[in-house]
Amino acid sequence: MKSIILISALIGCCFAATPKIGKCPTPGDEKTDFEVSRYLGRWYEIKRSDTPSEKGVKCSTANYSLRSDGKINVTNSGVNSEGDNVVVYLTASIVNPDQPNFLSVEIFPGAPTASYWVIKTDYETYSSLISCVQITADMYSLSGWILSRTPTLDVALVDELTKLLETKGVTELLTNDRTGCTN
Asked: Is 181 inside any structural domain?
């Protein structure tokens, strides 16, 4: 049991923002008409929570592709502070067909999954999403992202999406550094 708690705590530390007391929030009905097929493809990270796994990473992108078994491959890539390319591969699954915007993300085989849900998107320009990791029975960590189909996004829209994420409990977003990015 101690091993499971330790592994959960390590996952929370590495992949999530500041831990909070309680349980992961449940998704609302923000995007129940979500269409996975329209969401697939490349997204550029505009803003994100301060997560240890992304410390010092810039030029971040996420690429979503559909697998033959219906799961979604998520390939997150960026450049670390030494200038090396970093890539993280994740697998996402729709939890409930009635809430297709709510996914379960496998960080690595055998690890506890993280919840992941798209709060708002127009598929062609922007997306805001939240991820939550239940670290222990009474501790969770909530993270958020603002993504764009292009390397930049209108400031007014970024402000609107930032405020939306704040209403869901995600605060203190960092702007992704795109200086010298080639992607």
From this structure: no
Count of C-beta atoms within a 10 Å radius of residue 104: 17
Q: Is residue 182 part of a domain?
A: no
Number of domains in the chain: 1
User: What DSSP letter does each residue of 13-80 carry, written as one string?
Assistant: HHHSSSEEES-PPPP-STTTT--HHHH-EEEEEEEE---GGGTT-EEEEEEEEE-TTS-EEEEEEEE-
CATH number for the domain including 83? Answer: 2.40.128.20
User: pLDDT (tens digit, 9 = 90+) per residue, 20-36?
Assistant: 899 988 776 666 788 99
Tracing tokens 């219906």 back to the chain, one arrives at 70
For 120, the enclosing helix (H) or strand (E) is strand 114-121
Pair type for strands 19-21 and 139-148: antiparallel
Helix (H, G, I), strand (E, B) or coil at 110: coil
Residue 25 lies in a domain: yes
Tokens 């939890």 found at: 95
The predicted-structure confidence for 107-116, as pLDDT tens digits, reads as follows 777 777 888 8
